[in-house]
Amino acid sequence: MASSSSSPIWKYDVFLSFRGEDTRKNIVSHLHKQLVDKGVVTFKDDKKLELGDSISEEISRAIQNSTYALVILSENYASSSWCLDELRMVMDLHLKNKIKVVPIFYGVDPSHVRHQTGSFTFDKYQDSKMPNKVTTWREALTQIASLAGKDFETCEDEASMIEEIVKDISKKLLIMQPVDFSDIVGMNAHMERLSPLLSMDSENEVRMIGIWGMGGIGKTTIAKCLFDQFSQGFPARCFLENVSKIYRKGGVSSLAEKFLSTTLGLSKKKMKGSGVKLGPQEIKARFGCRKVFVVLDNVDDMRQMHAFAQESSWFGPGSRIIITTRDKGLLNTYGVRTVYEVKCMDNDAALQLFNQLAFKGALPPSELYEKLSIRASWLAQGLPVAIEAYGLFFRRMTSLKEWDDALCRFIEAPDESVMEILKISYDGLEETDKNVFLHVACLFNGEPLRRATTLLDDGVLQGCLGLKILAEKSLIEITASGYIKMHNLVDQTARAIVNQESMQRRHGRGVLWNPYEIYELLKRNTTSEPTNCMALHMCDMVYALHLGGYTAYHDTLKFLKIYKHSNHIKSKLLFSGDDTNLLSSRLRLLHWDAFPLTTFPCRFQPQDLVEIILHRSNLTSFWKETVGMPNLRRLDLSDSENLEQLPDLSMAVNLEELITQGCKRLKKIPESISYLTRLTTLDVSYCEELASYITIRELNRSGRQIALYFSGKEVETRSIANLSIGGNIHIQMFWLDGNVDHLSFTTEQQGPDKLTKKEKQQAPGELTKREQQQEPRKKTILCGFGSLMRKGRKVKATSEFLDHEWMMQRDQLAPDNQQALEFSTRTRQALQFLPEFHGQESVKKAQGKSQPTSKFHGFTSVDISRFRYSSDGASFLCFSLSMFPCVKELILINLNIKVIPDDVCGLKFLEKLDWSGNDFETLPETMNQLPRLKYASFRNCCRLKALPALVQLETIKLSGCINLQSLLELSYAEQDCGRFQWLELWVDGCKSIRSILDQLRHFIKLSYLDLSSHEFEKLPSSIEVLSSLRTLCLNKCKKLKSIEGLPLCLKSLYAHGCEILETVSLPLNHSVKHLDLSHCFGLKRDEHLIAQFLNEGENEEESLGFAFFPGTEVPSYFDHIDKGKSLTIDLPQIWPSPKLLGFDACVVIACERPFDIQFSPFSYDWDWGYERYFCLYLKPDFHSTDPSTEDEEEVVKSDHLLIIRGLKNFSNQINKLGIKSDLQFSEELKSPSAKLQSCGIRLIWEVGQADKSIEGEELPLSLEHLYAHGSNSLENDSFSPNHSIKYPLPPPESRRTQESNEYDFT
C-alpha cells in the first residue's frame, strides 16, 4: 500500500494540551482513555513536573506531527508559561493550515480567554523580561477563543461532553485520512464492493464477513486494506495474520494469547505477569460489551474459529469480524452469512500488474516486449500471486530470447512458489477427495457437473460430495450453467502432483495422463501395475504402439480416455489381436477415438459402464447378443462410418444420450428406445442410410411425444429434450406445419442447485428494468388464433382439438386479455398463401384455438432447415413463434416462409437468428424490440425488399438479397449516424440497394464490410470515413477500375476476380497485411504496387503480410531467386554486423491448366524451423474452369505471385535464412495440375536512425543489399567502386511525393 505523495504523514491523530494540576486526574484522563479506546492515536505528556523555560523538543515534534490539537483551557492554564508556549506553537501551525484546533473551555468563561481577564489576566507577567512572548501569548489566546469548541458550562455533564468530542474527532479523522490504494492494482474496486457489506453505520449488530477465494488470489491483501481503512474508529482492533500457521505451531492457547496481546496492547511478558487466562472464555469476558474490528486471516479449521468465539455475541454491538479462508464450507458451518468471493483479475488489470513488476513501474520498452508481456501475464490467468512471481522473474530477463525461453518453461509448468501455494489446498483434503481432485483435473475440466457426478459416484470416490468439497475449497468452480471450471494453474499443479506420485509409487498409480509414462506402461503389457484412471492424448505420442492381447491381470481400470484431434486420421494405438487389457470389466468410462476393433470381444461385458464414447471408430457392430448395461447413461458413436447396427438397448434402462451422428451405414435404430423413459438426447443426423420420418405432437396432460419412423417402424419417445435428426421430417405443430430435411432443438440443463453458483437469473418472459423502459406503451398485438377470453376463463378441449397433433392441455387457463384475439395483418397474409394446414384441420378450425403455453417449450435453440432452396418449394407455415419464449438461437433455413409473425418480439432472450433462404418480402417492425439480438442472417432471401431499424445488431448478413432496396428507412437516414451498432455487414450481390454507398456513412462502427459483386466503377469516398474498418471485400466487382481512398486502419483487402481493375493505391503508412488481387488481370504497374505493399506500410515487429497478384515470374525487386519451392541464403559474416529485421519473399504458383484461384484468410499456415527457416503451407481455393470456354492465353493467366513480408526478432547467432513452401490441395480436387515454380527472397537490414551518413568503405564488399527505410537523418551515401550492392538507398529527392506515385532513381 502506498499513500499519495502530496499528503502529509502524521504520527499522532490528537495532541492534548492541558494544565496538569487542574485536569490531569479528571477530564484529561477520561478524554485520553476514550480517544485510545476509539483507536485514535493520542499524544499526552505524562510528566508531572514542567521544567525549564520552554517546551521540550519531544513536545515540539509531537505538535508538528499531529492532525488535531485538543486544548483544555482550565482555570490555571495561563499561569503556566509552558502551556502558553504550547498554545502559541499550536496556533502558529493552525494559521498555516498544518493542524486543526478544538478548544475545550473547562470551568472558564470564553470571554475571559478572549480578553485575558479573570484567571487569564497577565498581571504575573507585567514586569517580565520577555515582552515579545507575552504579546504572542495574548494573540494566541484571542485566536483560540474565537474558534468553535466545547464549553463545559453548556454541556449536560462531563461524560457526555467527552463522548461527543471523541465521536466528532473520530469521524473527522476517517474523512481526513482516506487510505490510498492507487498503487495496488484493482484494490479500489474491491473496497467499493466490500464497503456496503461492512455496513459501518449499523451500530447494533455484530457483522461477520467472509473473504473467500483460491490460494494466492489476494485475500490477505484485501483484508489488510480493509483493516487500514476502517479499523481506526474502533476502541479495540486486531489483525491476526496466518491463523492456521499459529494454530499448527501452538494450538488454541497460542491463538488466544496472540489475539489478547495484540488487542489489549500487552507483551507476552505482561500477559503472563497479569494472570490473564488464555482461553475463549477470557475473550468473551473482556470483549462481550466491547466494539472490536478483527481480521482472522487464513483460517482453515473450525477449531481455530472457536478459539476466538463460538458465536457472534461474544463481541460487543457494532463489532466487525473479517475472516479470510479458502474453505467456504467452513464459513457456512460457522454461520457467516455474508461471503465476498474474490475473483481472478481481468486481462487488463493482470497486464497492468505484470508490467508494474516486470518493468519496475515503467512501460514495456518496445512493441515486441509489450506482446511478450501480454503472453506472460496471460499465463497467470489472472491469479495475483502468479502474476507477481512471473513479473519478478521476467524482471531478471535481459534479452528477448530469455523472455521466450521463460515463456516456454511456464507453459509447461507454473513457478515452483506458485505451485506450493496452490498445493496447500490439495494437501488439506481427505484421501478420497484428493482422488476426486486428480480425476477431475484429468477428465472433467470444462465438463458438465452432472456428467462428472454420475461417473465419479462409484461408491468409492463419492463424486457428488467430493465435488462439493472441491468447490468449497476453491479448487474448482461450478459455473451458473452447471459446468466445472478449474484454473489453468491448478490444473498444471494437478499434473505435477500426478507425476510426483507416479515416481513415488511405481506399482500403484491411481491416475495417469503423461503420454510417455502411459506409452511405457502399455509397452510392458504388465499385469502387476494397477491403474484406476488413464487419459492418453494420441497426438502427443511420438511413435505408434502395437498393443498385446488380453491377459488376466489386476482388473482395476475404471476410467479410460484415449483421444486425438479429428484431423489426425490414423490412430497410433494398434492391436496385435482382437482384445486388450485396456478393456477392463470394471470400466465406467470408455472413451476411445478411432477405436480399432470391428466388434467387442465376447468376454468384455462391463456391468458398470456409464459412458461409451467411440468417435470415428472402426466398429461394424456391437455385441451380437443383448448385454445388460443398467448403468449406461451415454452412448456416442459419432462418425463411425462402418457401423451398421446398434445393440438391443432394452436393458440400458438409464440411458440418457444416444448419438450416432455421421454413421453413414447405420440402417436401423432399435425399437427398444421407445421404452427408455430417461432418454433426453437423441442425435441421428447425417445417417444417410437411415430412412426416417418424424412427427411431433403434444399429448393431453402427458407432455410432448415424438414419433420416429425408421425403415417403416415407429419408435416413440416422450422424454426428448435435445434432438437432432435428418431425413423426411414432417413437423405438425399447432403453429408450425411443413416438411423439412433437418430438425434439432436443445434445452439447457444445469447441475444440482446446491453446487451451481446461485446467481440471480432472469425468469423466462421476465423483462429487465431497461427492457421494460424500452417497451412501447402501445398495446401489443397478439398474433394467433383465438376467441374472446376473460381472466380465469378455462378453455375446454373439444373433440376437434383432440384430433390435432398439437393441442393445449385440458382445463388450461387462457391468457389474461379483455379484447378479442384476432388475426394480425401478417397472419392474414400468411393465410392467403396457403388456405389450409398441411395437417388434418382447416384454417377455419384453427381460428378457434388458443396459444399453447406448455412448459416443454423451454428450448434454447431451434434449427428447422431444408438442405437446398427451391424457388417453387412448398411454403413452411409459421403462424406464431410464441411457443419458444426462452429461445436464444432460432434457425429457419430454406423453408420458403412467406411471412414472419409479429409475435417474434416476444422472444426476449433471442441472440442469434438465421432465416436464410425464405420468401418473405418484409420483416416485422417489432423486431427492433429484441434487446439481446446481436446476429441476424437473411442470405438468399431473394424477395426481401426492406429492413426494419435493427439498430441493436452487431452482425447482419444479407448476401444474395437481390431485391433489397435499402438498408435503413428514410426516417433513420436523417438521424444520428452513431445509432447503429453494426460491426459486420454482408451485402454482396445486393445490386438493387439504392444509394448504398451513401447509406454506409450511417454504420461508422463497421469493422467488416462485404461489397462483392456490385457494379460501381471506383471505390466510394464514404469508405474512407469508416475509421474502424479492418476488412473490405470487393470480390467479383466486374466494373471496378480503381481502388483508392482506403482507410489507414484497413488490415485485409479482398478484390478477387475484378477483371478490369487497373490501379490500386495503398495509402502511405497503410496497415494492410492481407491483399488478394487474384484474377485481376487488368492490373498495371505490378512492381510499383508490390513496392507500395512492402515499403509504405506500418512495420510491426513479429508480423507477417501476404499479397496475391497475377504474375508468371519473380520480380527483379527480389535479389535472390531460384527455381523450385525452397531457397536458402548465407548471411554475411561481418563485425559489427547489422541487425536482420526480416525478409521479403515471393513464390510463383504455376498452373498447367486454367484455374480460378482465390486466397482466403485460411489459405496460409506457417512456422519457423529452428528460427532459420520460414516454412509456409499454402492451401488456396482452386476452382477448375470449363476448358471448352478458355483459350490458350487463359492458362498463362492462371499463374500467380504470392508476396510475403516477414518481420521477426532474429538472434545474432544465425548464419543462414531460408524459405520452404508447400502447396496443398483439398480432397475434392483430384488432379490439381499446379505447382510452386520458383521463389525469391530479399533481406531487410536495420540502419540506425542516428546514423548521419553511410560510407561505402565501412561496409563489407559482400553486402548485396542495404535497406535504410525510415532513416530520415541520412546525409551522405558513398560506396566503394567494387561494392556488390544492387539496390542502394534512393537519394532524398527520389522519395515519393503527394503529386506522384512513382520513384525517380535517375
Automatic annotation (TrEMBL):
Biased composition (Polar residues): 1274-1283
Entry EC no(s): 3.2.2.6
PROSITE patterns to which the protein is assigned, alphabetical: TIR
Chemical reaction(s) catalysed: NAD(+) + H2O = ADP-D-ribose + nicotinamide + H(+)
Basic and acidic residues bias (residue ranges): 754-776
GO MF entries: ADP binding; NAD+ nucleosidase activity, cyclic ADP-ribose generating
Any Pfam family matching the protein: NB-ARC
GO biological process: defense response; positive regulation of plant-type hypersensitive response; signal transduction
Keywords on record: Hydrolase, Leucine-rich repeat, NAD, Plant defense, Repeat
Domain (TIR) ranges: 10-173
GO cellular component, one term: cytoplasm
Keyword Signal: no
UniProt keyword S-adenosyl-L-methionine present: no
Annotated protein name in UniProt: ADP-ribosyl cyclase/cyclic ADP-ribose hydrolase
Organism, as annotated: Arabidopsis thaliana
Taxonomic path: Eukaryota, Viridiplantae, Streptophyta, Embryophyta, Tracheophyta
